[in-house]
Known about the structure:
By secondary structure, the chain is mainly α. Helix content is about 55%, strand content about 5%. Mean pLDDT is about 85; it is low at about 1-5 and about 5-15.
Amino acid sequence: MAKRIPKPARGVQKMMQRNGDSVNARKLRSALVELDKIVSDYEQRWGIDRLPELVDTKLRERFEAQLDRLNKAIDADVGSEVKVEAEAMARAYAALEKAAKANGHSELTGEFWEAAMPDGKVLAITRTFEEQHKVAREHRDMVVYCVEEVANILANWEGHVAVTMTKHEFPGAEVVNVKEKQEEIFDDELPF
């Protein structure tokens, strides 16, 4: 019977094996895996790093202090401490969500407008940058921009002035095709 070759320790597993205490490593890893599931759920619904921005300064600072405590516990490599701080971090996310809702904010909707592009791809436009991230994650086959990005692209496009003036002078005008200005090359024979 062939001897099974063990996989090399990598990623989280490699970090957990520093002190050689497999029970500690399992506790630490388990706590972080569970917390990661919770955080991923909040990020999918609210956007990455968005929740702390939607609450008052005091709560945001308390959240960040809890994150510091969790990171210190991870650095100390003590599974039982990581478990306690990870559970507190999960409660901190719940508090952020509750406060964000109380402040009138809501989860990302994933709403977008779409159009076929000339090359066959599908363009999706969202209202906000946060919505753009959600739509891009959920629709990887689409080319996704938020309205602000479209405005930046148009502002930096050489031909936007002429198109904008035309749209202004002819309300309801539709852009159906855009071509790059071709530089004329005169290579006619001179008549003299």
